[in-house]
Design a protein that fits this description.
Blueprint (H helix, E strand, L loop, with lengths): L1 H26 L4 E2 L3 E5 L4 E5 L3 E7 L4 H16 L12 E2 L1 E4 L5 E6 L17 E5 L3 E8 L5 H17 L4 E9 L11 E7 L6
Parallel strand pairs: 1-5
Antiparallel strand pairs: 2-3, 3-9, 4-7, 4-8, 6-7, 6-10, 9-11, 10-11
Helix pairs in contact: 1-2
Length: 202
């Protein structure tokens, strides 16, 4: 019993230390944010263009933000804080991507733009997968405060209804983007995005 309590406490301490480190890195002024270009600004949302980016991703059977957030962060944080074949620390960037659904969910860290797939350290954990996204047009809606399953569902519905009202065709899953570490209490930024069909004639 005592051993079990010790292991639980040790795990929580490690988790807190990871979150503190993430907070300090993400709060730094030079934290890199994934590049995108705003094409159009509407009342409740933006249309953006995202060029390709390299992601480190973990797949999960979680079906909610609450279930995915902590274990996903832990695995990906371990990778960028030295849990790779080169024992190298990789700078934290924003945002953290989360694709949450009832079949298969995922969490991704965007790799710094200075890396390519060729020079990015290989993860020690085989569950961390490195991939390159294709360029994409998306619609994005922002909200503040701490994210929760309730808020994610609320703003997903709000974005979906706005796109339908404006005749913009979307496809794929609605995804969550988080920009702040857990211990940043003010000026928090969250977003819901979804891929859209968009041309220069829109």
């Amino acid at each position: 019993m005592k051993k079990r309590i010790f292991l639980i406490v040790s795990f929580l301490v490690v988790l807190v230390l990871i979150f503190i480190k993430i907070n300090s890195v993400m709060a730094a002024r030079n934290t890199e944010t994934q590049t995108y270009r705003i094409l159009k600004t509407e009342k409740n949302y933006e249309i953006r263009f995202y060029p390709p980016a390299i992601l480190a991703t973990v797949i999960s059977s979680a079906k909610s933000y609450k279930e995915l957030a902590t274990p996903g962060f832990r695995k990906l944080a371990n990778y960028i804080f030295g849990g790779n074949k080169s024992n190298k620390s990789i700078s934290m960037t924003t945002p953290v991507h989360m694709d949450i659904n009832d079949t298969m969910s995922s969490m991704s860290f965007v790799m710094p733009s200075s890396y390519t797939k060729a020079n990015l350290p290989e993860p020690n954990d085989p569950n961390v997968v490195i991939s390159t996204t294709t360029e994409a047009y998306v619609a994005a809606i922002s909200f503040g405060g701490y994210a929760s399953d309730r808020e994610i569902k609320k703003y997903t519905a709000k974005l979906k209804n706005a796109l339908i009202s404006n005749g913009i065709e979307f496809y794929g899953d609605f995804r969550f983007l988080g920009y702040n570490a857990p211990f940043q209490f003010w000026n928090r930024r969250n977003e819901i995005i979804v891929s859209i069909h968009w041309t220069t004639n829109n």
